[in-house]
């Protein structure tokens, strides 16, 4: 057997929190262990040649801890098939290789995650792939960017770091009209806040490093789809290229997912209060948050998201030096890349996460600061922001 299936039927469970805690694993029949064991085994004994006991032969192809995570991922995104990868970028790489051939074209957001842009621009273009950029919030611009060679429309919503919103249902319509697939990078929202497959997307991508893992202690990626052929192609690449998560990584990610629902509510509560504070601060030019009624795509966000999440971006008055000073002065908000963990982080995208976009169409404003609001006590977080802004 070369590819494991991770099909789950969690459709009888209504609640997201219930699926997040239970899907993908049942207490071990032998020991009763309520959590999936970390199967630290690279190979599995066979009873006679080809006689696998539990469907496993070699851990690049499949491992029971990873399989439990993959079933869970499928369930929480409301999809049929889930695949785990060693990082969000490994998932991105596998999806691009599964869907594109030399001569093909894809459409990407004009403010895509810097690493996604870098991989496409620096690596995939070398193999004859071309791309166009369009604002995800502008459905007509995305439609206009599609060519007869387009095989994939790549969307992030909310985008990183500008928190623009794409209308997933409308974009799925545009992609399907043109005979292409829509992928949604759902890293910023998490499946608790937004489920792109239900809105017509063909595949959902996650950096599980962020909200799904949720504790800044593991790097991982995921792809979820209802498309059986695409899933088989992804499984082939998991085994054929090998960018899979190890069993401890899979375990940590699954452990994180169990509390996703309560964490996302707290992230959203805290972010809303910090947005309120920042909006009236004289040193802040503008606050970018899809929950604000003044956000240009607020109506779309309200239609497709349960709440608006823990990510906030701000434009700081006084340019890049003022932005860097704000980042340097917070104490609870740690100056670091990444996002989505229980602890609050702050960063300067132009010099950090999005430095690779300098001079390109995806360049970010120099006075932009991105905050990943954690789940600490709100009064401490507000005090920290207040002190840092002076
Ligand atoms: C972090 C991130 C990625 C890349 O994921 P890694 O796990 O760091 O490889 C992709 N997309 C978005 C939106 C991200 O924030």
Automatic annotation (TrEMBL):
<keyword id="KW-0663">Pyridoxal phosphate</keyword>
<protein>
    <submittedName>
        <fullName>Cystathionine gamma-synthase (CGS)</fullName>
    </submittedName>
</protein>
<dbReference type="InterPro" id="IPR015421">
    <property type="entry name" value="PyrdxlP-dep_Trfase_major"/>
</dbReference>
<dbReference type="Pfam" id="PF01053">
    <property type="entry name" value="Cys_Met_Meta_PP"/>
</dbReference>
<dbReference type="InterPro" id="IPR000277">
    <property type="entry name" value="Cys/Met-Metab_PyrdxlP-dep_enz"/>
</dbReference>
<dbReference type="InterPro" id="IPR054542">
    <property type="entry name" value="Cys_met_metab_PP"/>
</dbReference>
<dbReference type="InterPro" id="IPR015424">
    <property type="entry name" value="PyrdxlP-dep_Trfase"/>
</dbReference>
<keyword id="KW-0028">Amino-acid biosynthesis</keyword>
<keyword id="KW-0486">Methionine biosynthesis</keyword>
<comment type="similarity">
    <text>Belongs to the trans-sulfuration enzymes family.</text>
</comment>
<dbReference type="InterPro" id="IPR015422">
    <property type="entry name" value="PyrdxlP-dep_Trfase_small"/>
</dbReference>
